[in-house]
Amino acid sequence: MSSTQMQSADSDPPKFHRLFKFHDPEVVAVMVILLGLFQLLLTIPTYSSSIDMKYMFVCPLCIGSVSVIAGSFGMASERTPRKALLNICLISGIAGLVGTLIGLVLYSYAANTSLVLPPCSQDSGCPEEVFQSFYKAISGQLLFYDIAALVLHCFLTFSAFKGLRKH
What we know:
The protein is mainly α.
């Protein structure tokens, strides 16, 4: 006679907490990775266009790197649930939240300031105006991707925190 043993809650590895019925942490992790890659790709034009803030390119570089790392740990924790992976995912998610909040302030400042450029002598197609609009477009894109990354980092971090707390 074979007896079936019930697995206790302690033997189950901790998993992400499902916030909603339609919430899939794996999809959230992939979206965090993609938004991190977008931030990393926008580092190059930010490096060449930031005149007033000399080291502005460091922010999308750091935020993109931390987002890719947090998403990768989230993906690994969803595929092979372990307490250590979920704990590292929580730590990297908190680091991503702090980075995106700093980026939110920096990108808002960059999008709202206007560069002091010499006046244009031509009537149409001034290079200074084109550069100013390019700078505003890059800052706006970084701000948009940062807000999206902030929301996704909140989902990922809260889900990891609840998963660790429940276990």
